Amino acid sequence: MPGQDSGAELSVDALRARIAAALGRGRRTLTPSARVPAAVLVLFVYRRGVPMLVFGKKTEDVPHHKGQFSFPGGVVQSTDGSVVAAALREAREEIGVEAAAVEVLGLFDDIPTTVTNFVITPVLGLARGEPSFHPDGREIERVIEIPLAHLLRPDAFRVEQWEREGVRRPVVFVRYGDDVVWGTTGRILRELLDALFPDVRRSQETG
User: What is the CATH number for 40?
Assistant: First the structure.
């Protein structure tokens, strides 16, 4: 895999190839057990040929993670049938993107949450064309798109060690302008980019 690809120059075919290579190594699966299964849509969209990732800012009315940025997603319902169906349903409800507008590329590693009691399956998707997003206003306040090139900067991420109930855990942050993506979403994002772009050197943990 070419190591010199930058996020800004990454073609659709090159993105698909990197995702296929990363997923081809296998994925971490977790049995929900006492945890609640959830799914999120990690959606790539190309704007004028530039790849971006899509995030929604939660409103203050949601029960968890008020005001934080996240990937569209939520709890897998019994009527969904699969984590893919759940992620696509939630994306339609939260940001107004229809399932037909998304090419599903595969499933990334399951992620357990620490404060809440979920096991999250990230569904990787590629937007067909250049869709408009429409936050529902109830769960999602607004949508941002962060260029992949920004996320691949060596200094894009900051990792702090936070202590909770006597246990220190890394908490991942990434800033884009005045917006900060952090927590579980930051962790999913960093693990995914590490898998897709192992040639990109990251800054060291702090705190």
Answer: 3.90.79.10
